Amino acid sequence: MTDLAVGSFPGALAPRRRFVLLRRLAAHRSFQIGLVLVALLALAAIFAPFLTSADPSAMKVRFRFRPPSAAFPFGTDNFGRDIFTRVLYGARVSLWIGLVVAVSTGVIGAAIGVLAAQFRRLDPFLMRCMDALMSFPAILLALGVTAALGPRMDSVIIALTVAYVPAGARIVRASALVVRELDYIAAARIAGASNARIMIRHILPNSVSPLLVHVTFVFAYAILSEAALSFLGVGVPPPTASWGNIIAEGRDYATEAWWVMLFPGLGITLSALGLNLLGDGLRDVLDPRLNWRA
Amino acid sequence: MSALVSIDKLTVQFRGDRGWITVVEDVSFALGEGECVGVVGESGSGKSVTALSMLGLHPRGAARFPSGSILYAGLDLLRASQRDLRAVRGRDIAMVFQDPMSSLNPVLTICDQICESLRLHQGLSRAVARRRAIELLDLVRIADAARRVDEYPHRFSGGMRQRVMIAIAIACRPRLLIADEPTTALDVTIQAQILELLRDLHEELGMAVLLISHDLGVIAEFARRVVVMYAGRIVEDAPVDVLFASPRHPYTEGLMASMPPLDGGADRLYAIPGRIPDPDEPIPGCRFGPRCPHLEPVCSVSAPELVAISETHRVRCTPRTRPGVRG
């Protein structure tokens, strides 16, 4: 994840650049493409009940393994369930998991990072915990957590958050360590501000921009990992549709009914692609080193 | 003049690679109510460390005070709790830093930053604090204060940021303002304006000012009393006119000699030979000894004491304070 080593430039989110940032983001080609992709998928997920009248788990055994047609745009699976409907409802589950994991990673990561930077006594302890978590591959760690907590959507979210928090915490800590030595932190202390106030009002806003970039990538990784976990059978349990478990259920018939795996696979690919493009755009705009080169 | 803050035998040590290193030793001086004192010395002479001690701003665990006290209103600032310190900071003692470019938080408006201490210490409402912030910007002579108060720091130049810093510092009408090289990072014309502003505020608000500088010119213009520090110790302490007319310590003489003459007569400026000693390697006897043009055998044997040669003049130099030479 070295591509996430974005600049810890103090004040990278400075308001002077807020409008400039928005304008630069809006002009960024890959950001535009990413935004369109993610927005389309999100809209499809939100408006799933309006886009299809079918029930995602309604089985019509009569219509087993129907290839894509007018009646079943994406075909049907071994139980005769409409893949189009299942992919739409699966998007709700997959994107929701991605979003919650991204947000909670951001919040928890920022909290741990700033605490570690601010309280030197706490720092070694917190960072060794993060190191310990980081030493496991994310998917293996998540596998362990879901195995312990049982296959539920909540446990997938918890597992992936646990897996992605350490990197976020390290990123925030690195930039917070730079920010806390700046004069305006001492100035705030001289004005009589408490530790909590200094952390929340002064250090945090000045050190989160690298995390913002990281979080968009976490969103994408979380969708991929959810799919992987569901594929391995420890993710979102059937009959709830998620992109991962549609693929998992379709793999036995991959040769006869390729459409079962193709469409959720496309969903995963497009969302991961879209979010990565978004993240790239954010990184290009927020990282001062890249700006200077441009 | 009653003492507002009295520093008594202050010794500060920092944690080094091999045990504790003494960076400030046996510093004693008092600041009267409304008095303006200058502290001069080279980089590393302990000026800023002394000032930061007054606000309890040294990181806990990395600094310690084996002896001494800093008394303010009956409170020993070296041993006060964080809670007590927070109450003093900003309200009673405020500080302005050297580099105005990094002293303001880039993500908060000027108003937010001025209001911070007002709201913390005086519990003012947002609207009242905002009005007060505009008055303060007016006071530090920022034009169009009502509009500029809502702007972010990047729109202010270095000199203006320093004015904003001063506005923040005086927001709660502190009784002591510590200005740590407030003009070093500014260009000369702005320096003069900032000093003038500080002097006016000092007179109008009647607050005491501790001005730290390595520029004797700045000190001469501003302070009424000067404390000269060298290698963590006070070497001379005198009223400004006395110090400039008859400096007694060889180091002060050296500092005077290294100021450019007004008539531009000198081709080369005088420089004191050598450099400030490393606090890691203590020098026996007088710390200025190795650089002193008037070194005597006694200087390398025993460390000189800070001796009062008159009621207001203290010097730390054995040969210059011998009974026969005094007066």
What does this 3D model show about the protein?
- Chain A has 294 residues and is mainly α.
- Chain A is built from 13 helices and no strands.
- Chain A starts with 17 loop residues before the first helix and ends with a helix.
- In chain A, 50% of the residues are buried.
- Mean pLDDT of chain A is 81; it is low at 1-12.
- With 327 residues, chain B is α/β, with parallel strands linked by helices.
- Chain B is 30% helix and 24% strand.
What brief labels describe this structure?
heterodimer; A: mainly alpha; 13 helices; B: 327 residues; alpha/beta; eight-stranded mixed β-sheet; four-stranded antiparallel β-sheet; 10 helices
Roughly how much helix do the residues of chain A carry, as a percent range? over 70%
Number of helices of chain B: 10
- Which residues of chain A form runs of ≥5 with pLDDT under 50? 1-12
Helix content of chain B: 25-40%
Gyration radius of chain B, to the nearest Å?
A: 21 Å
Averaged pLDDT of chain B: 84
Q: Which class best fits the helix and strand makeup of chain B? A: alpha/beta
Order of helix and strand elements from N to C terminus of chain B: EEEHEEHEHHHHEHEHEEHHEE
Share of residues in strands of chain A: under 5%
Largest beta-sheet details of chain B: 8 strands, mixed
Span from first to last CA of chain A? 23 Å
What is the percentage of strand-forming residues of chain B?
15-25%
Give the overall form of chain B: globular
